[in-house]
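Hi everyone,

Forwarding the result from last night's run.
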Amino acid sequence: MSIKKTSLYATVTAAALALTLTACGGSGSGGSASGGAWNKDATVNIGSLYEPQNLDNTAGGGQGVTEALNGNVYEGLFKLTDDGKVEKLLAQDYKVSGDGLTYTFTLRDGVKFHSGKALTSEDVKYSLEKVIADDSQSARKANLEVIKDIATPDARTVKVTLSKKSISFVYNLSYVWIINSQAKNLKTTEDGTGPYQLDKWTRGSALSLDRFPGYWGKAAGNKKVVFHYYKDATALNNALLTNAVDVVTSEQSPDALDQFKSNQNYKVNDGDSTTKLLLAFNDKAKPFTDVKVRQAVSSAIDDKKLLESVWGGYGKLIGSMVPPTDPWYEDLTKVNAYDPARAKKLLAEAGYAKGFSFTLDTPNYDPHPTAATFIKSELAKVGVTVRINTITPDEWYTKVYKNHDFTATLQEHVNDRDLVWYGNPDFYWGYDNKQVTQWVNQAEEAPTAAEQTELLKKVNRKTAEDAASDWLYLYPQIVVASSKLSGYPLNGLNSQFYAYDIKKKG
């Protein structure tokens, strides 16, 4: 899981996907800057609401550090494209042993870090060990703890032995940044192999990247990228209207879109999102230990009305943790669909004919306060009283995620393929179904992606039927850009925003 605007990053397993060799080229990129030549020495100004907490993605850098540095400054052995495919990057080739436990990677030759040091197998070993270290807050820590041993027979060979089979291992490696093993102060500096190097980070304002002249692959399509950070969507939109920025990575104010749609100087792109807004129950805390109570609460909330009130005509209803871009997606919106009469019936069957009350721990940034107020109103109609307790992201991390000290909460889960967390009974929401856990484990050790997909479809349906959480809606991914721009990513999977293919006229 990744959650927005917090220091918490954890994510999930995925299918084994076809791998093809590429350099640093983008796919699924948007825009078509017609008329006029593009300027290879242009500065591209990017507007964002998500400033990094620090520059180290194993030390709680947050969503912002992924957006700015992933693929731009740091690269992995593999790359996750904007359309969700996995491609070789710093790995020139790899082999898997017959028992599926040993992966031998051959590194690309001629790769240099921004400091000038050549990439070696020791850097890969260091980077993997950094992810699974005790103090790591990496997105892939839990998934990569399957690593048993890392050997470096020579400078270009890395041999990784796993404790058990992991069909998602290569996919998970696409999230691991390869860092110079000799680098220091990574919270404020960097030493990656990407097409850009860090120029300057002014906290609270901007982070700028310069094209790296020693890059091993295709040079970035622009000379400089500046991420400008804003506190709210209104300020961000004003920056776009006044040409202070050229593109907004993720539009959060749908009411403002008409001014861009009606203006030929801008293009509004509606891409695919993996961000789900959840009403997460503590399935180990009464009354949500009772599946009928969870089903009742889910059926009492009009998700369609909530989505319309927050996003207008954008976004989707999903009915489960799985977005349409995941291989094991099925439309489960009819499971525990909006039905207040059914909600009242289920509450009576569970022994709560007169309702009950509970506290909803609500992060203090949009859209959570709005959603909480809507949920309170909806549940009041079936006799359930909601007390809204507004908390900061840091308080949420400690109270809810670490200590599990809550009854219900609201949270955004950013990553794709994160259904598997319902197979972990120790995860913060406490869902504990032994059959689901077995299916998740079997899926990870499945010999083929097809078998993995079938098992996770079972997990998807079971967790939906159990109302393990209430998946309120899937966010839209709206990128708004100047018509002078082309080549920007549309989907922003897992918050990444590859800037190297962006071209700018003038």
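The longest strand covers residues 147-154.

Cheers,
N.
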